[in-house]
Specification:
The complex is a heterodimer of chains A (553) and B (369).
Chain A (H helix, E strand, L loop, with lengths): L3 H5 L11 E5 L9 H5 L5 E12 L8 E12 L12 H5 L5 E5 L5 H4 L8 E4 L12 E3 L21 E3 L10 E4 L2 E4 L11 E3 L2 E3 L9 H16 L7 E5 L4 H4 L7 E5 L6 H7 L10 E4 L10 E3 L6 H7 L7 E3 L9 H15 L6 E6 L4 H9 L7 E4 L5 E5 H6 L4 H15 L7 E4 L8 H11 L3 E4 L1 H8 L26 H4 L4 H23 L16 E3 L2 H7 L2 E2 L2
Parallel strand pairs in A: 11-21, 12-13, 13-14, 14-17, 17-18, 18-20, 20-21, 22-23
Antiparallel strand pairs in A: 1-4, 2-3, 5-19, 6-22, 7-10, 8-9, 15-16
Helix pairs in contact in A: 5-16, 10-12, 13-16, 14-16
Chain B lengths: L2 E11 L1 H10 L9 E8 L10 E7 L1 H14 L2 E6 L14 E8 L9 H20 L4 E8 L1 E6 L3 H7 L9 E8 L15 E3 L2 E7 L4 H9 L14 H13 L5 H7 L4 H4 L5 H10 L9 E6 L5 E5 L8 E5 L2 E5 L2 H7 L15 E5 L6 E5 L4
Antiparallel strand pairs in B: 1-8, 1-14, 2-7, 2-8, 3-5, 3-6, 4-5, 9-10, 10-11, 11-12, 12-15, 13-14, 15-16
Helix pairs in contact in B: 1-10, 2-3, 5-6
The chains are: A alpha/beta (553), B alpha+beta (369).
């Protein structure tokens, strides 16, 4: 006898179990098929149904029941073809006939582990609550007793330093005729320091990003430097950089990253003799905020010709980066070997700094770096950072928020009197809700010397669909509907690199104005208000206490 | 905004000159305090230049504790000056105002001056801590040839209160501030001018970068960098840090508190140094509207403005007597017979330096170095 389950679909999921339910309007749909063609997940498909309708054609009502076979757009209940809510269908629909709707009662995570494989995805932490950064406000406003500055008229210098800064007591200076001069005979090493814009574009690799996206970002950054005079810099992410860029004079605006897979570094090292400029800095990735303690993975289907060439690997193979640098068994090793070898590669002319994920042990790392005279900065990536591919559990449940991590590291430096010697770079959720300038300024006042952004620029410059309700977030499978995180030419050709570059420039110019609008009423203009903790307040006493700032309500 | 009057002269002058000049700027201070520092003293102090003078205020119990502590350290009291107090409306009298001249403890008499300075600083801090909670001991300075007076009230009334008009107290460099209390509680330790180991300064305006600067100074490991009841105290300590701890020439004070843009630094003959200092001492950049008037141990006086020149300030006078003031009416009062056409209103790149004994005025420009 046939089991009843086959007949009543008992082991299938219902649409109510899915995070997004497609709202399709029969009356508006003209059956053009665009929506089903673009759906990256094949969540919707054309289908036919038999329908019984009551119909009348006579001048007076003569209702008759009629059976009709009609075509419809149907949502799949296959968990592997779940609707991600990206909304590409809505984007292409000529008649506003279709859109995904978020279903807050979904049971997605209960089911998205078929075959014993945990849910993997790209994007960011699915937590739509306000981050700590968005709960801080700027409360020290210059009023009457000290005139506020004019963001439009006064001169502002929104710049920061990237590099190890010697304390004044160690500067090799000598007196000559009542003036100070640098004592060249002292043999003292003065580490290289770059003056940069304090909002950087964080590490996103060629490979994780599509060629058009990466090129757009790179063009935007170069334009900002060359034309707008804004020294914005961008980190390559792991996986090397195009040779043409490495050998160009524009490499000075870029920070090549070396991570545990060392992808792309054979090519970079071979190019060093042909480089006409030094890179801005070198970032050594030890961790990533979105997936702390986990390695990277570029899936085989993203490893096409260009990527294979840049990374120096065969095409079409998975490229896993281990969670840790396998050749290093201690931080002393990491610091002594890795940082110094990278310094050596460029003749000690390029700052080298590590990036770690936010963690309660950040201070331990920091204190090891403080004792090493070569560490040029410490970049800390908080839990709200994004990634191209990770396990959902790593993204949602692992990591440390950036605000208190940066604050305690900064205060630790203050206790040692080294707050200006080792710049802290904060990342992970900066501009999570769109308030980039406010989040950045708050982090400066908590102690960061610079901030790095990733998701923000993807959303602002290329319209990334992702959000904290798990919308889209399929960067890992190479089917990015916007063409941002894919190596499929059919998809990445959707993205115009010139438009991305234009948006990058617009974003940074707007952020610059907003930063001035924050700093001017606070009476700050000449130097970045790093550690100006009297300028901010939290709307929650516990946050205020933890960050050692005031509480305002 | 506080009003500032500094006079430097080759002859001894009375502090009344400063106070009368302050009176001309009366609309600019609210009587929340007056501070007075006299350096290169005349009168009865002229013969005691090598001996440290402790300036302060004590309660009846406090003076007992102070004596006991100083005895314990081995300081020998040589001379005591106390003002002839005339009770004045608006001024609340405290028990005991003093400037006491001490001789060093025997074991310190032959030690180098740096060690003596260190002892004086540590002693002053210890006394301050002893009396901080109940305000039984308030000490402003403990240094040779320097007297400090501070009290809450209107400057002119305070001059009557202290009997300064009849006093023989004179000095060659006198700094006075009429306080307009703004954002902090009225506290005598918050009253300018501030003094540390031969360096003094007073300021008008708000210091918007106060917290990072305070944190930077307090983490230098130097015991004297404490207090900060006023956001302006950091200006004095920056001066001390730059000139005494680091040993840089005075003009680098300007380079550090108001650093040039990177493109502007290229024009400096010492651009390499200025670039390094800008980066290394970034936390000492002041950012608020501030005019700073200060002096160094050799008797050099100076005035600098913030990087946007948001506060008033003028320097003028005749050879042998110059005034550095927040407003010109004060200068007219103190040195009326000068060529007003030669008055200097320092702008954002300027540092006006008056040499010791008011010998000459130098206008140093930061762009040219």
């Amino acid at each position: 006898m046939e089991p009843a389950t086959r007949l009543d679909h008992n082991h299938e999921l219902t649409l109510k179990d899915f995070p997004y339910i497609i709202r399709w309007r029969d009356d508006r749909c003209k059956r053009c098929g665009r929506c089903t063609a673009v759906c990256p997940m094949f969540s919707i498909e054309p289908s036919v149904i038999v329908r019984r309708i009551v119909h009348s054609e006579a001048p007076i009502p003569e209702p008759k029941a009629v059976r009709q076979v009609i075509s419809v757009v149907k949502q799949s209940t296959d968990i592997n073809r779940y609707c991600t809510g990206c909304g590409t269908c809505t984007l292409v629909c000529p008649n506003e006939a279709i859109e995904p709707e978020y279903n807050p009662q979904h049971k997605f995570l209960f089911h998205k582990n078929r075959g014993g494989y945990p849910y993997r995805r790209g994007g960011r932490r699915n937590d739509p609550r306000l981050s700590t950064l968005d709960r801080l406000k700027f409360t020290r406003i210059s009023m009457l007793t000290d005139p506020a500055l004019d963001a439009g008229r006064h001169e502002f210098r929104i710049r920061t330093y990237l590099g190890r800064i010697l304390p004044a007591e160690e500067l090799p200076l000598k007196f000559v005729n009542g003036k100070l001069e640098v004592d060249k005979t002292s043999g003292k090493f003065i580490p290289p320091v770059r003056e940069i814009y304090p909002v950087m574009i964080g590490s996103m690799s060629v490979g994780a990003l599509s060629p058009t996206m990466w090129e757009g970002l790179a063009m935007g950054v170069t334009y900002l430097n060359e034309v707008e005079g804004m020294p914005v810099v961008m980190c390559s992410g792991e996986g090397g950089m195009p040779q043409r860029l490495l050998k160009s004079r524009f490499i000075k605006y870029f920070i090549p990253q070396i991570a545990s897979g060392y992808f792309g570094w054979d090519e970079i090292v071979r190019t060093i003799p042909h480089m006409v400029e030094d890179p801005c800095a070198i970032e050594i990735k030890y961790g990533q905020g979105a997936k702390p303690g986990d390695g990277g993975l570029l899936m085989a289907h993203k490893v096409l010709k260009l990527i294979a060439e840049i990374r120096g690997v065969p095409m079409g193979v998975d490229l896993p980066s281990p969670p840790t640098h396998q050749t290093k068994y201690s931080i002393e090793e990491s610091v002594a070997k890795m940082i110094q070898s990278m310094y050596m590669a460029w003749g000690f002319r390029v700052p080298v700094y590590p990036k770690i994920s936010g963690t309660r042990t950040a201070r331990a790392v920091l204190n090891n770096l403080v004792r090493n005279p070569y560490a040029a900065a410490l970049s800390i990536d908080g839990e709200d950072g994004g990634t191209g591919a990770a396990y959902n559990v790593s993204m949602d449940k692992m990591g440390h928020p950036i605000a208190s991590n940066i604050r305690e590291c900064y205060l630790d430096l203050v206790r040692q009197g080294k707050q200006n010697e080792l710049p802290l770079i904060a990342a992970g959720g900066v501009g999570k809700t769109g308030n980039l300038a406010a989040n950045a300024a708050a982090l400066f006042m908590l102690g960061a010397s610079a901030v790095a952004i990733g998701k923000y620029i993807m959303q602002a410059a290329a319209g990334c669909f992702g959000d904290e309700y798990n919308r889209c977030n399929i960067c890992n499978i190479g089917k990015c509907p916007r063409g941002i995180t894919t190596q499929d030419p059919k998809l990445y050709r959707r993205l115009d690199p010139d438009k991305v570059a234009e948006r990058v420039v617009e974003v940074f110019k707007a952020v610059d104005v907003e930063l001035k609008k924050i700093f001017a009423p606070m009476g700050r203009s000449t130097e970045l208000p790093i550690g100006m903790s009297d300028g901010i307040s939290a709307d929650d006493p516990a946050i205020a206490e933890r960050l050692q700032i005031s509480y305002a309500c | 905004m506080c009003r500032l009057v500094a006079i430097t002269s080759k002859d001894y002058i009375s502090p009344m000159e400063n106070i009368i000049a302050l009176e001309t700027m009366k609309e600019g201070h609210d009587g929340s305090g007056m501070g007075l520092i006299m350096k290169n003293l005349g009168g009865e102090f002229e013969e005691m230049k090598g001996y440290p003078i402790l300036s302060g205020i004590c309660s009846r119990d406090g003076i007992h504790d102070l004596d006991e502590y100083m005895d314990k350290l081995g300081f020998q009291l040589r001379y005591t000056w106390t003002p002839t107090i005339r009770l004045t409306r608006g001024v609340e009298r405290r028990d005991y105002y003093f400037a006491r001249v001490y001789d060093y403890p025997d074991e310190y008499k032959d030690r180098p001056f740096e060690e003596k300075e260190d002892l004086l600083l540590r002693t002053r801090i210890a006394l301050r801590r002893m009396g901080e909670e109940d305000e039984s001991i308030i000490v402003f300075s403990f240094y040779p040839d320097v007297i400090t007076l501070k009290e809450v009230g209107d400057p002119l009334q305070l001059s009557e209160f202290f009997g300064l008009d009849k006093s023989s107290l004179k000095a060659k460099i006198i700094f006075a501030q009429g306080r307009q209390n703004t954002n902090y509680a009225i506290n005598l330790y918050a009253c300018h001018p501030f003094f540390i180991q031969g360096y003094g300064s007073m300021t008008n305006g708000e210091n918007t970068a106060f917290v990072p600067i305070r944190e930077f100074l307090m983490s230098r490991g130097f015991p004297g960098y404490i207090g900060y009841n006023s956001d302006s105290e950091v200006f004095t300590h920056i001066l001390h840090y730059i000139c005494k701890i680091l040993g840089y020439p005075l003009t680098y004070y300007k380079d550090i508190i108001t650093p040039l843009k990177t493109s502007e630094i290229d024009g400096r003959p010492d651009s390499e140094v200025v670039r390094l200092l800008k980066v290394t001492l970034r936390p000492l950049c002041i950012d608020g509207p501030n005019c700073v008037i200060g002096f160094t141990p050799d008797g050099t006086c100076f005035m600098v403005q913030d990087s946007k020149k948001l506060r008033p300030g003028v320097v003028g006078g005749v050879k042998g007597k110059y005034g550095l003031m927040s407003e010109e009416c004060g200068l007219d009062s103190a040195i009326p017979h000068r060529d007003r056409g030669l008055d200097i209103f320092p702008m954002k790149y300027d540092m006006v330096i008056v040499r010791p004994e008011a010998e000459e005025v130098v206008l140093w420009n930061q762009l040219q170095g």
